[in-house]
Amino acid sequence: TGECQANVVILHKSLADDFEKFCHANDGPLPLLYRSKPGEWKCPSLSSNSDIRTDCLQYRIYEYGACTGTSTSLKDYFDQLKDMVTFYLGCSFSFEKAAHKVGVPLRNVEQKCNVSMYKTDMPCCRVASFCCNLVVTMRPIPEDQLEAVVEATYPLKDSHGAPVHIGNPGLLGIQNLSSPDYGDPVQPHPQDVPVFWACGVTGVEAVSNCKSPLAFTHSPGCMSITALKNEDAPVHNSKEIPMVHCISQNPLHYSIASETAVRKIRELESLIGIDPGDRGMKHLCCQDELLKTCLSLSHARSVLITTGFPTHFNHEPPEENDGPPGAIAMAAMLQSLEKDVVIVTDQRAMGLNKKIIEDGVQQGVLKTPVPLLSYQGDAAESALMFLCENGNLERPRFDQLIAIERAGMAADGNYYNARKVNIKHLVDPIDELFLAAHNIPGVTTTGIGDGGNELGMGKVKEAVRKHIKNGDVIACDVEADFAIVAGVSNWGGYAVACALYILNTCEIHDRYLRKAIGFPRLSKKANWASALPSITKEEKLLKILIQHGVRSGVTASLEMEVDGLPFYNVHSVIIEKLLEQIP
């Protein structure tokens, strides 16, 4: 019709303050346009001739939480309405014109049917007796127009704003798109992607759950029509522009972050790409591997990190000091973001890594110890049993696996250091976990390396064979979903920690992560900042490693110079430059 529409909730005045707080606590699905006084039928700010008793085409009547009927008028409830308060809430139908204006097809409009609405398994922030799971609308959008529809709807906060999920409905707990809980099923076209917005029908669910003696709502799809034109809907100006990135194909999953955050993370990726030994690493770099890794990590709940490259095969311990500091930097940031983190390493190195972690906690580099595991791969199903509860693909223990400076298996089944020395006898088959992860929906893998022989670098193995010395022999054959290439692998770990901080302090990404329910998490910013890497932390970790007999790696020779600086000074410069990108 061209006019803005409003979802409606009518409650007894004794519940009104709590419901208003519930709306503010969940302003994605419940953007509050107007709260009436008790017994007020009109809403002058939305329409000069409104009468809430007849404004909606159909109302639902709730008694003690049960829907006991519907009505086209509430005039029979004259006495009860005198003690009731009406809430007018923004509606996603109001942003459809903005989407249409930028050329985005809307399948529900084309098919002349109501939009599809679904209950999710995402709990809203509870206030007193008001609690429910988020309800969403779904519109199939062509893949090449995802960014356009996000950018068009993002400023329209009073109409639910940007989407809260793009991709597989199962990630919201929605099992079957062809059976919506409200509205009509909408048929997608080939190449369409399901896009979900927070929905005001969430208020209907909250009313049902509060079990008030009497309450009214609009019937889904039968909103109140206001006098405001869609083109006059309030636009919340922001300098930020949202950007959309695919982070998984199985299941299909996209994430959103601001253009500023993306630019900063791309700068981090560029900084760590400096090649100290001029070994040809630039030929291995692929843009946005750091960004996609960190977007994926941001959505993860549980992360496995593995490290350990026994390049000094004649020394005890044979490990090098590239890898553990980067692993611990990532673990510290992930812990501060309240993710579950474990580190997996070789059985023979468990004692060493336990001491490093304990000393790291004592020195303040880590706040709490990181659980340490080993993997030997004793049987055919070992990897699956390790990664999933009882080997069940639908119950993975980890959402993301990250290898940093971890020896990777070559095409001949052996493991090589940069000088072509076979070190297989010192390496447990942790590669099996990465190979198995490819077959587990929802589990993503990342490899961080600086020589092409590290676990995960199989993604760029052809470039390794072509451009890296001894690459035809040493190239890792095991591919990760994402391959972060750095001049020194530790730098890659530091960049991941910094990028996670940038993403989680990005308001656009934060809103998408929490599905526009609950409050922004920026109050935790100081805690995240305390987990960032620093020169002091790296110096402490390197001293801990030296105390336990760990030597420098082949690429970290103290005699090497980069741009006239001794190599050990370059580490400090890189860390300083990474931290310059922190907002």
From TrEMBL:
Its EC number is 4.2.1.48. It comes from the Eukaryota. It is found in: Mitochondrion matrix. One of its GO terms (biological process) is glutamate metabolic process. Pfam families: D-Glu_cyclase, GLUCM-like_C. Residues 268-578 form the D-glutamate cyclase-like C-terminal domain. It catalyses: D-glutamate = 5-oxo-D-proline + H2O. Keywords: Lyase, Mitochondrion, Transit peptide. It is an enzyme of class 4 (lyase). InterPro entries: D-Glu_cyclase, D-Glu_cyclase_mito, GLUCM_C, Putative_hydro-lyase. GO terms for cellular component: mitochondrial matrix. GO terms for molecular function: D-glutamate cyclase activity. D-glutamate cyclase that converts D-glutamate to 5-oxo-D-proline. Belongs to the D-glutamate cyclase family. This is D-glutamate cyclase, mitochondrial.
